[in-house]
Design goal:
By secondary structure, the chain is mainly α. It has a single domain, classed as 2-Layer Sandwich (Erythroid Transcription Factor GATA-1, Chain A), CATH 3.30.50. It contains two helices and two strands, in the order E-E-H-H. The chain has helices at residues 31-46, 67-70; strands at 9-10, 17-18. It has a two-stranded antiparallel ribbon with strand order 1-2. Strand 1 (9-10) and strand 2 form a beta hairpin. The longest helix is centred in the middle third of the chain and has 16 residues, at 31-46. The relative contact order is 0.10. The structure holds zinc ion. Zinc ion is lined by residues 11, 13-14, 16, 28-30, 33.
């Protein structure tokens, strides 16, 4: 009985290839990469200074359901 070969994936952070999906940090190769990526994501989030409020969605209320999903947003 032989072990099933694990599919190799690219670490989204450092692009290193390996069976990362099987690891506890998958799809990242290591905890370091996972934390770095998470940190970057949090940084992006923090650039949004104004929290979303219900009035931000009023533009969509006039559209039929789902229509704004198909078209790019107009400025
Ligand atoms: Zn990595």
């Amino acid at each position: 009985m032989s072990e099933k070969p694990l599919p190799e994936v690219k670490c989204p952070k450092c692009q290193k290839r390996g069976p990362w999906l099987a690891g506890k940090f998958g799809p990242f190769c290591s905890q370091r990469c996972r934390l770095l990526d998470l940190g970057q994501w949090l940084e992006e989030e923090n650039k949004i200074t104004e929290p979303l409020r219900p009035e931000h969605f009023t533009d969509y209320e006039e559209l039929p359901p789902g229509s704004y999903l198909d078209k790019p947003e107009k400025e």
